[in-house]
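My hope is that you will study the record closing this message with an eye to the fold:
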Amino acid sequence: MRQVGTITQAPNIQRKLTTIVAADAANVSGRMAPDEVGTIQALRRSRVIFEHSIRLRGGRIANTAGDGLIAEFPSVVEAVATAISIQRALCAGKDLLLFRIGLHLGDVIVEDDDLLGDGVNLAARLQEAAPEGGIFVSREVVDQANGRLDAEFCALGPAIPENFIEEVAIYAVLADGITTPNDLIAVAPQRTVPTENGDPHAKFSRTKMRAGLATGPLVIIDLMNGAGPGWPTLGVVAIGFSVFMKWRKLPPKTH
């Protein structure tokens, strides 16, 4: 019978599935230097657009920090529609700041009114990769919103965001008035993760390790039987020969 794992989550930790919207103003520090007061006023006007648009479509602002914010929506479609309407208003308006926006549908931790966890972090990474005036979303958002909006989703390819282990499929929202890049490389080069499948020498190292683990018990059995080499010796020889043949096929190391 399969044993069910124990739940390690603390009882006072609350989680929920929600659509996270991460937004951050672009080049605020660059605008602050020549016109600090004007930049702050532009930021305030831009935040009014965010607050009105998010509230209008049933969302709420969860976190604010500096010139950015985190919002959540119970509906993926409404979240994307809100992001599009915000970007259109900011790009078309006067004396407003341009923002980058990222969206992800994921599991989050609820701490009072704040949202925490990997779901929030991924939305923030998508926002960081987006161009000024653009919107990047995850595959989970596309699965729910595709075909339900006057917008399309362009697959940019997989990438591994900072502090993440696995690849994430990134999509750009295509709609009138929205900035979009041509490809993922134009935004942020992909980080490659070496694997044993792509490195024959790493794979051979794993093979040697497995061979060592397999021959150890055979040697012990042979020693316990006494009276010279026995059948376990044949197993050790066979394993050694297999490792030797794989070693001969290795290509030269490249540096």
